[in-house]
Design brief:
Strand content: under 5%
Order of helices and strands: HHHHHHHHHHHHEHE
Number of strands: 2
Radius of gyration: 28 Å
Number of helices: 13
Distance between the termini: 46 Å
Structural class: mainly alpha
Helix content: 40-55%
Length: 282
């Protein structure tokens, strides 16, 4: 079995297709002995005809199921075919691999200064495992993804100043209500610029999320519920993890924005200019 075939098999085994109501065969409930047939006034010829029709109906139902599953699989493959410059079977395999742990490992990330010198590196990183805009809607990916992986993806997008990707990734983080910001572990990144970027991103996420919470929005819900908010004992605000306050700034100014942009406060405190205003996008 090839690498791609194994990935396809494992991925489809984890998919949850929409439920389809099955039809009950026509022969279900018919009496199965001649004495019962005579009591109901059904002769053997009529019963045989009914069984024949039921058999034909079951065959049609089977063909319908076959067409249904074939169409479903084709739709899944079509979704992955939209990933640019990637083989869909390999992406499907990567979604469920490795099998020995629940969450994905943190992949190597490009250095911020390298992205500043050549911003195409960010696109190469974000498209390496597939288009994250689509992966974020795949159930298997969302349950195996981690907040620290999302923060690193945000770091790459911020370095490239890809505002659309910054918005999409921050909204994805917002929808993960189980991702409490104060529980994000210390990455202890050896790259000083990236470590400062990660700490600044976390601080700005806290400020942006608390801004949304102050407007009445709640993480994980798309509908404003004024009654539920009125009954809250305390406002569910976010806070920074302890390691963030211990991350120092960089010696030389690093500017990821265009000339004239002031950037955001958490970044300026660490001698970095970066715009993450899309964090507050609702």
């Amino acid at each position: 079995m090839t690498y791609e075939a194994l990935g396809l098999l494992l991925y489809f085994s984890t998919c949850r297709p929409p439920r389809r109501r099955r039809q009950t065969p026509a022969c279900v409930g018919l009496p199965c002995n001649l004495h019962a047939l005579k009591e109901k006034g059904i002769d053997s010829a009529t019963f045989s005809l009914r069984c024949l029709l039921a058999s034909a109906s079951s065959s049609v139902a089977f063909l319908g199921d076959l067409d249904y599953w074939t169409t479903y699989i084709i739709k899944l493959l079509t979704q992955f075919e939209e990933f640019p410059a990637h083989r869909p079977f390999r992406i499907a395999f990567n979604l469920i691999w490795p099998l020995h742990r629940i969450h994905y490992a943190l992949p190597p990330s490009p250095a911020p200064l390298d992205i500043l010198a050549r911003r195409e590196i960010a696109q190469e990183y974000l498209y390496r495992d597939g288009h994250y805009d689509q992966l974020r809607s795949v159930w298997v990916f969302t349950i195996r993804d981690t907040p620290i992986r999302s923060i690193y993806r945000l770091c790459v997008s911020v370095c490239a100043q890809d505002h659309n990707e910054i918005m999409l990734e921050s909204q994805y983080f917002w929808r993960h209500k189980d991702w409490v910001i104060r529980d994000i572990p210390d990455p202890r990144d050896p790259d000083r610029v990236r470590y400062a970027m990660l700490a600044s991103i976390v601080e700005e996420l806290v400020a942006a999320f608390n801004y949304k919470i102050g407007l009445g929005l709640r993480r994980g819900t798309a509908i404003y519920d004024s009654e539920a908010i009125a009954n809250e004992q305390t406002r569910p605000e976010e806070s920074c993890p302890e390691w963030v306050s211990q991350v120092s700034g960089v010696d030389n100014l690093v500017n990821f924005c265009r000339e004239g942009d002031q950037g955001m406060p958490a970044f300026r405190e660490r001698n970095i200019i970066a715009d993450v205003s899309q964090f507050r996008n609702i």
